[in-house]
Amino acid sequence: MNEPLDELIAKLRRHHGIYVMRRTFEGTCAFLSGYDLGSGRNFLREFHGWLLLRGKGRPELYWPMLVLCEVYPDGSLPDIRCFTPEQDEQMVTVLFDLFEEFLRV
């Protein structure tokens, strides 16, 4: 997978279960982190900076926590390991929506 990032995100969104073993927010973030590291693209560093500019989280937070800040108040972030299936689905949707917005900038 050495395609443009926008194509990767679109493909991942359409065929989520093919790429991510557990279709959870945590599993999706782990896949993206592994892809970023393995590809050497460092797109998550840019994504992290873009999320910070949105002003909804603190700079010391890891990018998945900044995604959570889009839905949950910074001071009461939930444990992603304990998400219900509905929370996972919501946060995966938020994650893909944010990536698509990030890629349009």
Polypeptide structure, described:
The protein is mainly α. The protein has one domain (5-104). It is built from 6 helices and no strands.
Secondary structure category: mainly alpha
What would the average pLDDT be, to the nearest integer?
92
Largest sheet: none
Number of domains: 1
Segments where pLDDT lies below 50 for 5+ residues? none
The run of helices and strands is HHHHHH
Tell me, briefly, the overall form.
globular
Name the helicity range: 55-70%
Assembly status = single chain
Helical segment tally? 6
Number of strands: 0
Sheet-strand content, in percent, reads under 5%
Q: For the terminal residues, how far apart are their CA atoms?
A: 23 Å
Q: What radius of gyration results from the CA coordinates?
A: 13 Å
